[in-house]
Structures are given as structure tokens and as C-alpha cells.
Design a protein that fits this description.
The protein is about 45% helix and about 15% strand. By secondary structure, it is of the alpha+beta class. The two termini are about 35 Å apart.
Length: about 550
């Protein structure tokens, strides 16, 4: 919910200051605004960038009758840092030390505006490893009532549990003998993360304990492969604000691992039976380190020779890159979808024309609204489904233990993508199959489920921008029957390139998804001048995924 201060809007409506205590002046201004609204074609009045229809305008003036509401708006206007945060979602500076920040009535009033921005800012700071931002947000007064605080903390905890599940998955893979590569685990155990976790309030203390135990298990899992890194992980746990029990376990495990390390170091090759056998023939100049170096160089040389032979043996072999397959060539939606994407990607406001349908112009639709599907499907012509649109390979079978082992479970939204819009701008997701298309609008800092079909290709596009309007349509029609209606008038950052470069093609295995209750979480966020797509779950069971068109 976007915060709008009526005091500012009243001044804009009146063309000068308005005394909110003068009921006669407010009544005259309301009549003036309603008269101006009746003169507009689309029955919508724009004030300071905000559109009002008749119902919204009447509600606006009715709220001004409450002296408490007016007082709360005046209190908000008195804190420039809070006003900036409510407008942009960025906390720049310190909130003023005001007594009404502890007033239950004020908290109930401000919480619906403050909570979504606060939650999005915290999640963004965690994803970007911005320690200062995390500490700053939780050091400020918490302008939320109990219900909104619970809702915010649940979203933050869900994000943290995603990290914990990722760490547990890595531990299971290490236990099964997977190769150890620290770069894939570094974001789960580092100094910045520990500082951020220590900034979280007491409500997250139990989760910190659970996460610290997983970190201890990580140190145990990697100590034989990277002893120094193992000790560094235990040092991180000792810095984390947890329980006395956890800190005791850190001391005990560190001592145990150091003792095991000493025992391993004592078992040098020269002291084994092989070492004793070759000791009479061992040159004095050949130290143990030199012997290891020579052995490593020999292995490297053998590997290079084998690789050269392997490459020469494969010179004449042929391979078919599966990611170059056009899943939608010749399908019903193929050509028409290319037209739709091209119109969105290369939209120039000057080339658009007015739509004959009168509507409320720039009013953005609600999350979940299908903005393109009905018109697209209404003119879709019959066609033939290509075989490439079906899942490749033989159908696999899955054991009961393998199903639903992931963290993202929801029986009501199984076999779906859950898309999180972390942007301060609107987003439209388009889901294409060879025979159908639907879309979903996603408001800033909101999310939506996108159901997928199993056994065929599902292609997802993501179209982001600002200033949505349905009063414009594309100047160039498709086959004289279809024009794209509804556009963002302002592209958001590199959204035009992002639209096609990050298109995803999902092919789901029917045998797996008949039994699984999980969904696939994705998020779209921004870093600098670029948008990026983040896969929030690394479970690829039952999924073939391709990137780009």
C-alpha cells in the first residue's frame, strides 16, 4: 500500500495552503474536484501524479473528517527521513526520536504503509550482503503493530530458512561424497552474514541457534578437505549470538578436530611400511615436499596427455546442443508470441495509438490480473503442436523418499513457479505453451503463483516498467486481427534486454510432478542499473530448464 499524505494533495488540489480545520473550505474544495472529475473523458482526475476516480475522491475527503487521522499525517510529515522512506523504500538517516512512535494508535495507522517497504528493504539488504543497511533498519523504531510485525518477520524467516535448507542440502551432498568447492558455500558462512544475523531481533534467536548447529556440521564435513576453512567456520559460529550450549559445542568440536588433525600429520609417508621399505633408496636431497611436488607434476602431465588424446579422438564427433532447440517452432502461439514480445521490447510511446476502449488510463491492475492472455487467446488461430514441445527422454520413476524433499512445499500451488517481484516497479509475467498464453501482473514488492503444464514446454517472459496504461495500443497490428493493448510507458532499467535474455523454458517430468507438492521459487531484483533473476531453490528434480529464447 503506497502512502499518500493528504496535506500535500490538498495543497495541490487547491493551488495553495488549505486549513484542514475549516470544514467549509474542505466542502468547497471537494465540490470543485468532483466537478473537474466529471469533465474528464475517463472519469479519473490526476493530482500530483496520483489518479482518483469518483469513489476514491469521496473516500479521500471522508477520511479528512477524522481528527486522529489528520494528526497522524501531520506527525508523519514532521519526520523527513520517514517521508523519504515511505516514498522510496530507502532509509537515509535516522528517524526522529518522537514519542508518538510508541503510540499504539499511530502504529496501527502507519503499519500498512511501513511494513511492505521495511520487509522488502530487509530482504534486499540480506541478499546484497549490505551489513550497514540491515543494522540501520533494525536499529530504527519499529513502526508496526503486532499483526504487521508478525507478517514481516514471517517473510524474513522464510528467506532465512531458504539459506538454512540450502546449507542442509550441501551437507547431504558432502556426506554422499560430492566434490567440495567453497565458492558455492561462501555466501552461507562469512563475516558479513554473521554480522547481519546478529542484527536480527530476539524473535530470530531460535533460528540463529538452528543455523549455528548446521554451520558446526559443515565444519565437521569439510575438515578433512580444508582444515583451515573448517576452523574458520567454527570461528564464525563463535561470533554468532546463540546459546551457551552451542558455544560449548564449538569449543568441543574445535578441540576434537585439532586432535584429529595432529594424528593425521603424524602419519607421514616415510613412517608407513612403504616408507620404511624405500627409505634405504631415498636420496638425501629429495625432501618430502619435493617428492609431493614431483608426484603432482607427473599427474598433471599425464592428465594433459590424456586430455589431448581425448580431444583428438572427438574432433570428428557430432553433438546436438539441446538448448538450441526451438520448442515453439510451428506451434499455435509461436508467431503471435514473437509479435507480442517484439511490441513490448521495442515499444516507443510515439508509435502507440489510442485504444477505442475508454478506461482509467494509468491505473495499475492488481496483482494476479491477466493483462494480455484474453486478447491473445481470443484471436489465436488453429495450428499444429510440434513434437519438440514435448518432454525429451524416457519417463523416469521416483522413489517415495525422493519426493517432497525440498523446502518449498504448497499442495494448493504445486507444479507452479512462485515469482517474487523485489522491484519498486511493476512486473508482468507471460507464460507461453505451444497452445496457450496467460499473463499475471505483479505489483511492486509482491508475489504471484504461475501454474505450469507437465510434459510440454512452458516459456516464461518477464516485462518490467513504470506508469502502466491500458489507454494505448500498438500502432502495428498482427495479421490485421490483433493489437497489443496495455504497456508500461517507462521501461525500468535494462528491462527491454531482460525481457528476452532471461526468458526461461521449463519442461516438467509428469511422473515426478504427479506426486510432488512443491513449487519453484524465483525472484527478480535489481543491482545497479541491471535487473537479475535469482533461482531461490537448487532442486532440479523433474525439471529441464533452458535460459533465453
Amino acid at each position: 500500500m503506497k502512502y499518500l499524505n493528504p496535506l500535500t494533495l490538498l495543497d495541490k488540489m487547491n493551488g495553495g495552503p488549505v486549513d484542514v480545520r475549516d470544514n467549509t473550505a474542505l466542502t468547497l474544495l471537494r465540490k470543485k474536484m468532483l466537478a473537474g472529475l466529471d469533465l474528464t473523458d475517463d472519469k479519473a482526475l490526476q493530482v500530483n501524479g496520483q489518479l482518483f476516480n469518483k469513489h476514491e475522491l469521496l473516500q479521500f475527503f471522508d477520511r479528512l473528517q477524522s481528527t486522529d487521522i489528520l494528526r497522524f499525517h501531520q506527525q508523519v510529515a514532521a519526520d523527513a527521513v520517514l517521508v523519504h522512506f515511505l516514498k522510496t523504500g530507502e532509509m537515509k538517516g535516522q528517524l526522529a526520536d518522537q514519542p508518538w512512535y510508541e503510540d499504539p494508535g499511530f502504529l496501527v495507522f502507519i503499519a500498512p504503509y511501513y511494513e511492505p517497504l521495511f520487509t522488502a528493504a530487509v530482504l534486499n539488504s540480506l541478499q546484497q550482503a549490505d551489513v550497514a543497511a540491515t543494522q540501520h533498519l533494525f536499529a530504527a523504531p519499529l513502526l508496526m503493530d503486532g499483526a504487521h510485525t508478525t507478517a514481516s518477520y514471517r517473510q524474513i524467516l522464510r528467506h532465512l530458512k531458504g539459506w538454512e535448507n540450502e546449507l542442509k542440502t550441501a551437507l547431504a551432498e558432502l556426506d554422499n561424497g560430492a566434490a567440495f568447492t567453497w565458492k558455492y558455500l561462501a555466501h552461507l558462512a562469512n563475516t558479513k552474514l554473521i554480522q547481519q544475523l546478529n542484527s536480527l531481533p530476539a524473535e530470530f534467536h531460535q533460528w540463529r541457534i538452528d543455523y549455528s548447529i548446521s554451520l558446526i556440521n559443515l565444519a565437521i564435513a569439510i575438515y578433512t578437505k580444508d582444515f583451515k576453512r573448517s576452523m574458520a567456520v567454527l570461528d564464525l559460529v563463535s561470533q554468532l549470538q546463540t546459546s551457551d550450549y552451542v558455544q560449548e559445542r564449538v569449543v568441543i568440536r574445535r578441540a576434537e578436530l585439532q586432535q584429529l588433525r595432529k594424528q593425521q600429520l603424524h602419519k607421514r609417508p616415510a613412517e608407513t611400511w612403504l616408507g620404511r621399505l624405500i627409505k634405504p633408496f631415498w636420496p638425501a636431497w629429495l625432501t618430502e615436499k619435493k617428492a609431493y611436488l614431483i608426484f603432482f607434476c607427473l599427474l598433471l602431465g599425464i592428465g594433459i596427455v590424456l586430455d589431448i588424446r581425448d580431444q583428438s579422438g572427438r574432433k570428428n564427433s557430432k553433438s546436438v546442443p539441446s538448448h538450441n532447440v526451438d520448442f515453439f517452432a510451428g506451434s499455435r502461439t509461436g508467431a503471435q508470441m514473437k509479435y507480442l514480445v517484439a511490441q513490448l521490447q521495442h515499444m516507443v510511446p510515439g508509435q502507440l495509438q489510442d485504444t477505442p476502449v475508454k478506461d482509467s488510463g494509468l491505473l495499475a491492475p492488481q496483482t494476479g490480473t491477466d493483462v494480455y492472455g484474453p486478447a491473445f487467446m481470443g484471436v489465436l488461430k488453429p495450428g499444429k503442436l510440434p513434437g519438440a514441445a514435448k518432454a525429451n527422454g524416457d519417463e523416469q520413476t521416483y522413489s517415495a523418499a525422493a519426493i517432497d524433499s525440498a523446502a518449498f512445499l504448497d499442495p494448493l500451488h504445486k507444479q507452479s513457479v512462485k515469482l517474487y517481484n523485489r522491484l519498486p516497479a511493476g512486473l508482468v509475467a507471460l507464460v507461453q505453451t505451444p497452445d496457450s498464453l496467460y499473463s499475471r501482473f505483479v505489483a511492486p514488492h509482491d508475489s504471484v503463483f504461475l501454474p505450469l503444464l507437465a510434459g510440454i514446454a512452458n516459456r516464461l517472459y518477464f516485462y518490467a516498467g513504470e506508469n502502466w496504461t491500458i489507454s494505448k495500443q500498438s500502432g502495428t497490428p498482427y495479421d490485421s486481427t490483433y493489437r497489443v493493448n496495455g504497456f508500461f510507458m517507462s521501461p525500468y532499467k535494462n528491462s527491454a534486454v531482460f525481457l528476452t535474455e532471461t526468458a526461461l523454458v521449463y519442461t516438467l517430468d509428469p511422473a515426478y510432478w504427479r506426486r510432488s507438492n512443491r513449487y519453484i521459487p524465483l525472484e527478480i531484483n535489481t543491482e545497479g542499473d541491471h535487473l537479475f533473476l535469482n533461482m531461490m531453490d537448487n532442486d532440479a528434480t523433474g525439471v529441464d530448464l533452458y535460459l533465453g529464447e
